[in-house]
Amino acid sequence: MAPFYKYGFFGDEMSLVLAFVLGTGFGFFLERAGFGSARKLAAQFYLYDMSVFKVMFTAIVTAMLGVTYLGWLGWLDLSLVYLVPTHLVPQIVGGLVLGVGFVVGGYCPGTSVASLATGRVDGFVYAFGIGAGTLVYAEVFPWIKGFVNSSEMGQVTLPEVFDLPWGLLVFAVVVIAVAGFSAATLIERRSGEKS
Amino acid sequence: MRLPALTLNQKLALVAVVLGALALFSVPHRGPVVTLDTRELAQIVEQEVDHVTPSELAGWIVQGRSDYRLVDLRAESDFAAYHIPTAENVTVAALPEFPFQRTEKIVLYSDGGIHAAQAWMLLQAQGYRAVYTVLGGLEGWKDDVLYPVLPAQASGAERARFERAVALSRFFGGEPRAENEVVAPTPAELPKLAAPVPAGAVSPVAPRKKKKEGC
Amino acid sequence: MAAPIILEVNDVSSDHRPAVMPGSGRPASPYWNPYLAGLGLGLVLLAAFVLVGRGLGASGAFSSTVAWLVHLVAPAHAQSNEYLQGYLGDGTTHPLKAWLVFEVLGVMAGALFSGLLAGRARIMVEKGPRVSTAVRLLCAFAGGILMAFGAHLARGCTSGQALTGGALLNLGSWAFMLMVFVGGYSVAWFMSWQWR
């Protein structure tokens, strides 16, 4: 029964080994997609290359369908898969800040790691920036703690919030994603023509 | 009828939409509704492999074992008044949501045995396999561990057993007695919770290794 | 800045990789079809769910590393800082012995492997044609700082929150993901000098 780790199939040490292996797959596909390059990543926000959107949502749809079907078959206990608790307002603000950082710096934490691994100096500097920012964040944490922990909603999913069946939300996400991909390709062509 | 040739991307999109549509019929993952294997459960109940005697439990506590979780199913006030050392308080209502590890041993007790048995069924239904009840519950604990009684016509073996029980009883702050002693019925006052818990035993709220699982 | 690492960025390909890698002269392989890359990524994520019961991430590794470094240099301060203390743990395990730290090391390995395979691994600076390397690196640093705040406020970054939480239909993650795009698009025009 999955998740295997939660059912005691293997211990912490093996879990760390798996972390490395999974990370390897993660890094491999990030670089395959071209996300080791800030220019490719930033292009998303200039509409002439929507790969970030395409890759991200394809990955989401794939994994989402995967857990849905595995859960349906009874092979995966989804309640044992860790869901990051929702803190709505800080996460909204965090998202905005992250989006800005994305365009200013050209990466996100994961892609910056992929980037520096392939020799990009700016990726390396960016990662340093994250480290510095983390330090600053830790220092100011006592003052912003209240905000950071506000609007706590616990572990909550979209089906729970909208009181709709899980399957319906899954279908909706798939439809939105596929429609989004078509739209994205159209937008790419249009921007390509303009520039 | 010939279908137009689809590009790879279009094929992928088609697969996704079909799978998504099929997912409309999926059942919620591990909601409160569970399925029971009645035959398997009936077997387990009949074989009585799901019990732990109070003496056994007392032995585990003394040894300082930490491979089990002792759960007191009673109300908070009862728990505060007295509970078996190393127990945690989880009411039956809170039980289904309680984050037990799949692999840990869960030992349940209540005053008698009814709630413990019902809770046992709930946890088994949720798929936990290492679930046990304390035979006799808290009453059993009082009778066997805290206030063991030496029968009037005790055989040698029974006396020997009693000696061991005496040691355990004293350990937990109880009072062993002989049957023919004229003594008040089981003391209304249970031992104060300051009763000695062996060093190295799991503290009442066992420190679970809290691993960060976020990003 | 030293000449060897300045990239001449009049790239020709439509997907913004240099048509020819400077130095090696060898044509870099084209990037994969994004849907296939996304499929691969999604399967890795699914494997994480099935094997370990958690998703991927990245920002947490940075927190662990910073916590460890601060602890090396000023242990008392690290322990008294609530945020860092959370990543130092109770002292029984080394802060770098964290799942995400190992995962991020894997990301480096995987990315390097893919890059080498494709002839895309090269010491260079990614930047637009109109900006100098120095300014680009400054922006990268600034962006990193912003990113740190964003990620820690949101309890994750695009890997952890958007991908992982997205697949699990996590409310906070979807809200976060939406705002990332909003935030990015809002400032894109103002930063176009860096990229175009």
Helix content of chain C: 55-70%
Mean pLDDT of chain A: 92
pLDDT < 50 stretches of chain C = 1-14
Main β-sheet of chain C: number of strands, strand sense, barrel status? none
Biggest pleated-sheet summary of chain A: 2 strands, antiparallel
Shape of chain C: globular
Q: Tell me the strand percentage band of chain A.
A: under 5%
Category by helix and strand content of chain A: mainly alpha
Radius of gyration of chain A: 19 Å
Oligomer: heterotrimer
Strand content of chain C: under 5%
Helix content of chain A: over 70%
Distance between the termini of chain A: 53 Å
| Apparent shape of chain A | globular
Q: Overall pLDDT of chain C, averaged?
A: 85
How many β strands of chain A by DSSP?
2
Low-confidence stretches of chain A: none
Q: Topology of this protein?
A:
The complex is a heterotrimer of chains A (195), B (215) and C (196).
Chain A: H1 12-33, H2 38-43, H3 51-72, E1 86-87, H4 88-105, H5 109-117, H6 121-148, E2 152-154, H7 158-162, H8 166-194
Antiparallel strand pairs in A: 1-2
Chain B: H1 8-22, H2 38-47, E1 51-52, H3 54-63, E2 68-72, H4 76-81, E3 87-89, E4 105-109, H5 114-125, E5 131-134, H6 137-146, E6 149-150, H7 156-171, E7 177-178
Chain C: H1 34-52, H2 59-73, H3 75-80, H4 82-88, H5 99-118, H6 133-154, H7 158-167, H8 171-188, H9 192-195
Helix pairs in contact in C: 2-4, 2-5, 7-8
Structural overview:
The complex is a heterotrimer of chains A (195), B (215) and C (196). Chain A is an all-alpha fold and 195 residues long. Chain A has a domain of 73 residues. Among the domains of chain B are: 105 residues, Rhodanese-like domain (Oxidized Rhodanese, domain 1, 3-Layer(aba) Sandwich), CATH 3.40.250; 29 residues, no CATH class. Helices cover 37% and strands 11% of the residues of chain B. A five-stranded parallel beta sheet of chain B has the order 1-5-4-2-3. A two-stranded parallel sheet of chain B has the order 6-7. The longest helix of chain B is centred in the last third of the chain and has 16 residues. About 7% of the residues of chain B have low confidence. By secondary structure, chain C is an all-alpha fold. Chain C is globular, with a radius of gyration of 19 Å. The two termini of chain C are 21 Å apart. In chain C, 58% of the residues are buried. The N terminus of chain C is likely disordered.
